[in-house]
Backbone:
């Protein structure tokens, strides 16, 4: 006999689990290999708990952005195989989501067994903006199960059929992964231990407008790197050369800098930048050089924070009791421009308190750069969902479970 959240005894029940298995793949269709299985590993505990309790577990998930129709390049087949390896048991794979294969595969499950349905986004109803179209697809999904567990944190900010509408049609509960993510985010937004340091990177200021706006009233220090920093530098009147620049956000950046000064929030910008004359590519060897942040040559583009800035950022993190980091400091995929991101990650591992890596590229960087994941307080599986929560937005996939 097994208990799972509000669902009660799940033995013998068909439990539809919405996981986040959206992992990067490489290689041609039919031979694709997973290059980072972090999200698959994160999905295992909830699936294993349900299977051990005797549930017949039916996993649904998406991969990439197929256009509402089957596309072999985005098949979940290699992901299902990896899930089976991690679970240590055979995992059945349905070659469709709600068709004949799915129906037969689910019907063939016995207590404690697991099946994965093909990419849910191969069906246009999954992401449709039309409630009726989405609802019709959710009806078909719901027919495959007796209960629903929402465990794909990376998609809870989306009002999609397998995230939102299915939860209206079946007894529903929050999975362990989603529950843990929400607990951590509450600690970041409800009376966080101080000093509270937020580190933001990534390419665009416009991607982080809401979170900067909200955190200016909460954080003690805001460290800004990555491609987004050049709009801040330009807002201060500095030349940024060929670096990424959002002209339409210059006034917003000036406003943020002014608000921070008024409210006593320290905004830390890089003082030096690693530049090159071109973006990293397979066609040329990188030619990195360090320049002052206020003296970027007109023919150069910034690709990482410099060594002085990396040291300064690490010092700004050192005494923190709470740290949230979202977005790399540079083009970490190239070793020539990975030092800034590595320095921030290293600093987070030494925090005496809660250190949170906010999903997306930051989580990928931690793994690619060889850090021990256990050295961080929490590595989120959903960058976009984390940011929207920190912006103060309601997440549809969470709200529907709390109705």
Residues:
């Amino acid at each position: 006999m097994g208990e799972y959240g509000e669902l009660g005894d799940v033995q013998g029940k068909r439990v539809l689990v919405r996981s986040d298995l959206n992992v990067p793949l490489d290689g041609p269709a039919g031979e694709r290999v997973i290059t980072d299985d972090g999200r698959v590993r994160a999905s295992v505990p909830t699936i294993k708990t349900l299977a051990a309790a005797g549930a017949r577990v039916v996993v649904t998930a998406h991969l990439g952005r197929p256009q509402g129709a089957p596309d072999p390049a985005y098949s979940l087949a290699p992901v299902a195989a990896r899930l089976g390896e991690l679970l240590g048991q055979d995992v059945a794979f349905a070659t469709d989501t709600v068709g004949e294969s799915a129906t037969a595969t689910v019907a063939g499950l016995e207590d404690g067994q697991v099946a994965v349905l093909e990419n849910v986004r191969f069906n246009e109803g999954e992401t449709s903006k039309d409630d009726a179209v989405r609802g019709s697809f959710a009806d078909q999904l719901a027919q495959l199960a007796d209960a629903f567990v929402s465990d794909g944190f990376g998609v809870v900010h989306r009002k999609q059929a397998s995230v939102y509408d299915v939860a209206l049609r079946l007894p529903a509960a929050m999975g362990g992964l989603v529950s843990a993510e929400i607990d951590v985010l509450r600690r970041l937004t409800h009376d966080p231990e101080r000093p509270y340091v937020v580190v933001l990177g990534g390419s665009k200021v416009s991607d982080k407008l809401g979170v900067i706006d909200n955190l200016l009233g909460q954080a003690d220090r805001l460290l800004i790197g990555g491609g987004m920093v050049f709009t801040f530098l330009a807002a201060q009147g500095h030349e940024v050369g060929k670096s990424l620049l959002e002209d339409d956000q210059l006034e917003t950046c000036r406003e943020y800098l002014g608000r921070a000064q008024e409210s006593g929030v320290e905004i830390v910008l890089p003082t030096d930048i690693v530049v090159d004359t071109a973006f990293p590519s397979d066609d040329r060897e990188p030619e990195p050089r360090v320049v002052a942040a206020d003296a970027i040559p007109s023919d150069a583009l910034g690709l990482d924070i410099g060594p002085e800035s990396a040291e300064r950022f690490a010092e700004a993190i050192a005494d923190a009791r709470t740290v949230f980091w979202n977005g790399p400091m540079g083009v970490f995929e190239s070793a020539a421009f990975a030092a800034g991101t590595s320095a921030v990650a290293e600093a987070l591992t030494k925090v005496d308190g809660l250190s949170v890596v906010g999903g997306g590229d930051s989580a990928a960087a931690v793994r690619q750069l060889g850090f021990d994941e256990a050295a961080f307080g929490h590595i989120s599986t959903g960058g976009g969902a984390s940011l929207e929560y920190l912006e103060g937005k309601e997440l549809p996939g969470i709200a529907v479970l709390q109705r």
